[in-house]
Amino acid sequence: MKRLESFLNTMVAxxxxxxxxxxxxxxxxxxxxxxxxxxxxxxxxxxLRSTMPQTWQDRYQEQGYGAIDPFFVYCCATTQSVPIGRAxxxxxAYLQPRQVRMIEEAAQVGLNAAFSVTFKLYGRDGxxxxxxxxxxxxxxxxxxxxxxxxxxxxxxxxxxxxxRHLTVNQASVVPLSAQQRECLLWAARGLRSQQIADRLNLKxxxxxxxxxxxRKKLGAQTREHAVAIAIQRGQIVP
Length: 238
Prior knowledge:
Blueprint: H1 2-13, H2 17-29, E1 35-42, E2 45-50, H3 54-62, H4 70-73, E3 83-84, H5 97-108, E4 113-123, E5 126-134, H6 138-167, H7 178-188, H8 193-200, H9 204-218, H10 223-232
Protein name: Regulatory protein, luxR family
Domain HTH luxR-type: 169-234
Keywords: DNA-binding, Transcription, Transcription regulation
């Protein structure tokens, strides 16, 4: 939690999107993840912010990989984090030859094992998420994710919200109820629904209802995404 809290404080202090991006790169590098892709597929094409070599980014655009990238079609079809990259592509028998080639090309420039963090589910308006990669082999990757996965996923969601806040005109903030804020606050501190219920002397079903309604108000895909948005908007302070 200390690493996550430190990262959140750094994000708040960052005054522009470039500063957020630099701090995000620095944070993930500490865990061995130096190949970051923040990808947003819209009707106008793919918007990439990445640490991948420029030659790879140019080829990605030139080859039209955004139209067949399994990251958008499969990873962004779920809010669950998905292990991806060459170290894992044998697990996905449905991949087409061109998709496998794209994954191999990414591995050649350092993205061998990665995980996804979705911030926009695949649909008519496109899809979006993080592809957070490394040169780890499969076993080393699994060890890091077991030890730090929750911190890494939460940090990615918050970095996205901070980037969005600094680059997109924001709609007015929808107020949360006191109960919704309190449940989100304890969720931000790592408590599960039953633990929050015990602490607040509520029924578990009530906690889940407060969190679900907060998620809807915030337009979040998951509980973790709702926490990230609420922190970014100053509605909770973990």
